[in-house]
Write a structure and sequence with these properties.
Structural class: alpha/beta
Strand order of the largest sheet: 4-7-10-3-11
Radius of gyration: 26 Å
Number of strands: 14
Helix content: 25-40%
Largest sheet: 5 strands, parallel
Distance between the termini: 60 Å
Length: about 425
């Protein structure tokens, strides 16, 4: 009997690990699964997926409703923004994964790059990370404030693509289907609506440099990042199928919206609007408002989907603490359970945490810092309270009081 071996790992064929033959070479089932993990991401869930589910994950693209539902497990509220980004992501990857249907005529479908506008901590970065997780594609996150034009001190715009290739474990083809999230893009706006004769290396110049990679082009980048040098080897990456998501708080944009709303009001016969009646929302933002803010029209044209995120309320903060699959309360409960301690938060305590976060104006990302401040003493003594229930009250959050320690009754078996 001839024993066949896998051409990759040299494992002998068996019933548990059969081989697939092709053109004189063989690959075993285990190597196929490993290859999938390399191509589409290796997270906790993929280790438990069987062969049929692997094939389904590769061939089936999630619908906008399915994407929105998945986002809703991690991003609380922001329903309109979730819907917009779900549709944009679906359309973008539909044109990639279903090329045979897209390329059957001369109609070319453009990319649906996204601009997220919302206050700090409203979920812009989390939304991009969650989309990348569900699609099993690499993601690179960059801060626009660190970017400069090529040739100036700082980080070249093209270095973002180096980060993407690194996130794809060096696989350029996989990186070419990834996601790039550029945060704080509002910080590279022009210093004024009028062009300056002085060089703005971290403002309009960066916007100009972003145009090329966002639109779609073959870009040569140093394989390990850094500056380009003569006689250096380059890695070529095509950005045509990379989804770009830009985000920013756009502080001061509401003043532009107020000015626009009142620009056609003349004379003395108009009643003065109350503060509530004149309240501005980012849902009202139009491309010309962003031009007035300082983004160049060419860049705005390459970000056709504009999604606004609302400021997080106290009620939203409490939901963020408790509802998402990876919520902070669930994380702390898990940490405590490892030491056989049950953790309970009273409703008033959760509301006190939410109020603190809003007062600090740090958004949802400030919730962990507040919890760490108030839980550090409790966790320091945690191993000594095996078999207890620890109850976090409002007084613990507001006045650094001691939590309630309740000894749990041990049930006797007959």
């Amino acid at each position: 009997m001839i024993h066949r071996h896998c051409s990759f790992c040299e494992t002998t064929e068996s019933e548990e690990n059969p081989l697939i033959a092709g053109n004189g070479v063989y690959i075993c089932k285990n190597c196929v699964i490993s290859a999938y993990k390399i191509m589409f991401g290796d997270d906790k869930d993929s280790a438990n997926i069987d062969d049929n589910e692997l094939l389904e994950a590769v061939n089936n693209l999630m619908t906008p409703k399915e994407l929105d539902k998945f986002l809703g497990d991690y991003v609380i509220g922001q329903e309109r923004a979730r819907k917009l980004i779900s549709v944009a992501v679906y359309n973008h990857y539909k044109r990639i994964f279903k090329k045979s249907q897209v390329d059957n005529d001369d109609t070319e479908i453009s990319k649906s790059n996204v601009l997220l506008i919302g206050p700090t901590g409203s979920g812009k970065t989390l939304m991009a990370q969650t989309i990348a997780r569900v699609l099993h594609v690499p993601i690179a996150i960059a801060d626009a404030t660190s970017l400069t034009e090529a040739g100036y001190v700082g980080e070249d715009v093209e270095n973002i693509l180096t980060k993407l290739i690194q996130a794809a474990d060096g696989d350029v083809k996989r990186a070419e289907q990834g996601i790039v999230f550029i945060d704080e893009v509002d910080k590279v706006s022009r210093m004024s609506e009028n062009r300056s004769i002085t060089r703005d290396v971290s403002g309009e110049g960066v916007q100009q440099a972003l145009l090329k990679i966002i639109e779609g082009a073959d870009v040569n980048i140093p394989p390990k990042g850094g500056r380009k040098h003569p006689n250096q080897e380059f890695t070529s990456i095509n950005t045509r199928d990379i989804l770009f998501i830009c985000g920013g708080a756009f502080d001061g944009l509401e003043e532009i919206l107020k000015k626009k709303q009142g620009e056609n009001v003349l004379g003395f016969g108009h009643d003065k609007k109350t503060k509530d009646e004149k309240k501005m929302t980012y849902d009202m933002v139009e491309p010309d408002d962003l031009v007035s803010y300082g983004l160049i029209p060419e860049l705005i044209g390459r970000l056709p989907v504009i999604a606004s995120l609302s400021e997080i309320t106290e009620e939203d903060m409490v939901r963020i603490l408790t509802e998402p699959k990876n919520s902070l309360v669930k994380q702390y409960k898990k940490l405590f359970s490892i030491d056989n301690v049950e953790l309970t938060f009273e409703e008033e305590a959760l509301l006190a945490i939410a109020k603190k976060a809003i007062k600090r104006k740090t958004g949802a990302r400030g919730l962990r810092a507040i919890l760490e401040e108030n839980m550090i003493d409790v966790m320091y003594e945690l191993p000594e309270y095996d078999g207890y229930e620890v109850v976090i009250t409002k007084d613990v959050i507001e006045n650094n009081a001691q939590p309630m320690y309740i000894k749990k009754q041990i049930k006797k078996t007959a």
